[in-house]
Design goal:
The protein is an alpha+beta fold. The chain has one domain: Aminopeptidase (3-Layer(aba) Sandwich). The chain contains 5 helices and 5 strands, in the order E-H-H-H-E-E-E-H-E-H. It starts with a strand and ends in a 15-residue tail after the last helix. 27% of the residues are buried. The model has no long low-confidence stretch (mean pLDDT 88).
């Protein structure tokens, strides 16, 4: 059975594994070699305790884990950016590992993340998809997301 819960300290190791798997899954996409942590929602490309633990400890962040039976098979990492009176949600990661896809766990994670953002007073939520990652783009669009910015880059080498 698919479920989502707020991550606890004991989930940190598994969260780091999932962030690493997420980074690995993005590596082959166009533009991946140019990605910066601030482009992908603030996650460092190397999964580490330093990059993941703040989602368990800071009040403006949360980590959600998606389980199949008791196995943690996916995660959503969320944070709030505040600018004056505006609160914008940033979905730094919404990822389900390969063998656990196609059962609705990703959408369940996303819906739980959106509920958390609403409770934080956010007026909107941003998530990222790399160029050519049609699956991520379709996932977001199926949940009502719309592209609002494309960042173009040219190397000067």
């Amino acid at each position: 059975m698919e479920q989502v819960r707020t991550a606890v300290d004991e989930d940190l190791g598994r969260l780091i594994e999932l962030v690493g798997a997420f980074a690995g899954s993005r590596a082959g996409h166009r533009g991946a070699d140019l990605a910066r942590p601030e482009d992908g929602g603030g996650l460092a490309p190397e999964a580490s305790e330093a990059s993941v633990a703040p989602y368990l400890t800071q009040p403006s962040r949360t980590a959600l884990v998606g389980t199949l039976d008791a196995w943690v098979a996916g995660a959503a990492l969320c944070r709030v950016e505040r600018a004056g009176t505006t609160h914008r949600g940033v979905l730094d990661l919404c990822f389900v590992e390969e063998g656990a896809r196609e059962v609705g766990l990703g959408h369940l994670l996303l819906e739980s993340a959106l509920e958390w953002f609403r409770a934080q007073g956010c007026t909107g939520v941003d998530g990222t998809a790399q160029p050519g990652d049609r699956a991520a783009k379709n996932f977001f669009e199926s949940a009502g997301f719309k592209a609002r910015l494309l960042v173009m880059h040219r190397s000067l080498d």
